[in-house]
Design brief:
- The protein has about 325 residues and is α/β, with parallel strands linked by helices.
- It folds into two domains: about 180 residues, no CATH class; about 80 residues, no CATH class.
- It contains 15 helices and five strands.
- It starts with 10 loop residues before the first helix and ends in a 16-residue tail after the last helix.
């Protein structure tokens, strides 16, 4: 089951996984985190990590419904673990969420497994489908449990409203030969008054408000696509203990520190996006959200509420006062 739909008692496994100690980390990583060497992150970064994990645990304790029957998932629904990328050489796992630097991290894993020599060589067209990437669902239940208990595990998250906007721009506003004729056409048919036959055939021209209506008003399945599905429904936030929680808003610092701690910074350097360099995140946010009806903003907050709360993002419905924070 997805997070938020617990059906059984996997207390033993949940305790072992969620209370996983940092002592499972390789000795050189533990040393690098505490010896004050010049190559290790500053204490403020570790303090931020501690605060992020404390908040996550607090929200999980306050919301038991977010805990899943992980034992059942491991033994009967392994497909739900397909978002976890595994590297057995470095004994680490990364939970991939679309529109949250997943291309960068998958590129890093492809370099680590020897498929490419550097992240610059990884073709963006195939990074998400390359069969050499190993995912957690490909292992046996015993192997899955071992990796959950012993591997260094990390994740990157993002302000939910910014992630929704990114999904719209990438899949429906920009040219996309897969999503526009499939999803875009459906949206236009549902919400556009008197759409032309060309619009219905191509799916081109969906507005941001039409997209928001689509993901907030549909009775069923509005958030089935993993590009805009709430993150908490994919990552088992209250079952799996994450050693590091990165945020896209502090992506450069978080990525470089995690790469350094894992001793792979020479092979997996951080890649900054070159898209939309003329626009800041806030500029884009203001541009697209400024004319959106309040009812859709409220519905977005309701749908993505666990993501906001688990990872400390602002839920101020007055978007002019809202800040996109990285802490």
């Amino acid at each position: 089951m997805l997070a938020g739909h617990e059906e059984g008692d996997d207390a033993t496994l949940r305790h072992v996984v969620h209370e996983k100690s940092r002592n499972h980390l390789p000795a050189e990583i533990r040393k690098g985190a505490t010896d004050g060497a010049n190559t290790s992150p500053g204490s403020s970064w570790f303090e931020t990590q501690s605060l992020r994990k404390q908040l996550l645990k607090k929200e999980c304790d306050l919301n038991p419904s977010l805990k899943s029957d992980l034992t059942n998932v491991i033994h009967n629904q392994k497909g739900l673990l397909r978002y976890y990328i595994v590297d057995d050489t470095y004994k680490m796992m990364y939970c991939s969420i679309c529109k949250v630097a997943s291309t960068h991290w998958k590129s890093v894993f492809l370099v680590l497994n020897g498929k490419f020599k550097s992240v610059d060589e990884v073709p963006i067209q195939t990074v998400h489908t390359d069969p050499s990437l190993k995912t957690l669902n490909q292992y046996s239940p015993a192997e899955i449990e071992y990796r959950l208990r012993n591997y260094t595990t990390f994740i990157f998250v993002r302000d939910p409203l910014s992630r929704v906007l990114s999904a719209y721009r990438n899949k429906l506003e920009e040219k996309n030969t897969y999503y526009q004729p499939r999803v875009g056409s459906r949206i236009l048919k549902m919400y556009r008054k008197n759409p032309t036959s060309l619009e219905l055939a191509s799916g081109v021209g969906v507005t941001f408000e039409e997209f928001l209506r689509f993901i907030t008003e549909r009775k069923e399945g509005g958030n089935v696509d993993h590009h805009w599905r709430p993150s908490y429904q994919m990552i088992f936030p209250c079952n799996i203990r994450y050693d590091y929680i990165g945020k896209l808003e502090s992506g450069k610092e978080d990525s470089e520190n995690i790469l350094r701690l894992l001793k792979i910074d020479q092979r997996g350097r951080f890649m900054e996006s070159t898209k939309n360099k003329s626009h800041t995140e806030k500029t884009l946010f203001d541009k697209y959200y400024k004319n959106i009806k309040q009812e859709y903003i409220t519905k977005l907050y309701e749908i993505y509420a666990p993501d906001f709360k688990l990872f400390g993002y602002s839920m101020d419905t007055n978007l002019t006062q809202r800040k996109i924070l990285a802490n």
